[in-house]
Amino acid sequence: MKKLILATAAIAFTTSIGFADVIRMGTEGLYPPYNFINDNGEIDGFEREVGDELCKRAGFTCEWVTNDWDTIIPNLVSGNYDTIIAGMSITAERDEVIDFTTNYTQPDPSAYLALSADVDLAGGVIAAQSNTIQSGYIASSGATLVEFPTPEETISAVRNGEADAVLADRTYLAPIEAENSDLMFVGGNVMLGGGVGMGIRESDGELKEKFSAAIKSMKADGSLNALIKKWEIGETF
């Protein structure tokens, strides 16, 4: 799933949150169906529903905040919020800076979206959101990588000719492909990452365990699979 080749070295944040009643949940708000801002200006989506239920099961009250993707890990580390719940794939590189709960989605295949079926994926210009697992994959693939701060800008880059194709999570791209007859999937799926988990500061091991236990309980009673099906996220557990 999304994302991140860390370009910024984060300083470890060592102050415990003390497990106050209110837990600040950091998300991007730009990546439907995982997270987005609805017509009422509220954070919505699969992760909003999952996060609210996880907080309930862990005995917390959620307070939702948005943050740009490029700084979402540094701002967790520096204490601007207590978790990341933003379609973030679990990767070894990220795990060097923050901890992750157990995954609440299966790995989602990445896919290429283009205006033509005959684009050169191996040697062409491929767009990706910056600091994502997709951008890292493209950078090592031999293709020319062009990065953009938001997922919407990657689609625009394909449309305006800045890029031959975009590589992103198939779950994100599927509704865009379905609603736009000029855009099409090309090439095969690319499997990246280890599923999506909540990002937690390394100093907050107890918080990590509380949320991991809540995720496991949602897996056990089927409620997590129900939300995965509702939001068409991918494979169930």
Task: Please sum up the structure shown.
The protein is of the alpha/beta class.
Give the topology, please.
Elements: E1 22-27, E2 30-31, E3 35-37, E4 43-44, H1 46-58, E5 61-66, H2 72-77, E6 83-84, H3 92-95, E7 99-100, E8 110-114, E9 125-129, H4 133-139, E10 144-148, H5 151-159, E11 165-169, H6 170-179, E12 184-190, E13 199-200, H7 205-221, H8 223-230
Helix pairs in contact: 1-7
Compute the number of helices.
8
> Averaging pLDDT over every residue, what do you get?
92
What is the topology, as strand order, of the major beta sheet? Answer: 5-1-6-13-7
Task: Give the ordered list of helices and strands.
Answer: EEEEHEHEHEEEHEHEHEEHH
Low-confidence spans: 2-18
Give the C-level CATH assignment of the largest domain.
Alpha Beta
Structural class: alpha/beta
* Number of DSSP E strands: 13
The fold-level CATH name of the largest domain is D-Maltodextrin-Binding Protein, domain 2
Principal-axis shape:
globular
Distance between the termini: 16 Å
- Gyration radius (Cα, Å) is 18 Å
- Roughly how much helix do the residues carry, as a percent range? 25-40%
Tell me the CATH superfamily of the largest domain: Periplasmic binding protein-like II
Q: In percent terms, what proportion of residues is strand?
A: 15-25%
Q: Can you summarize the main beta sheet?
A: 5 strands, mixed
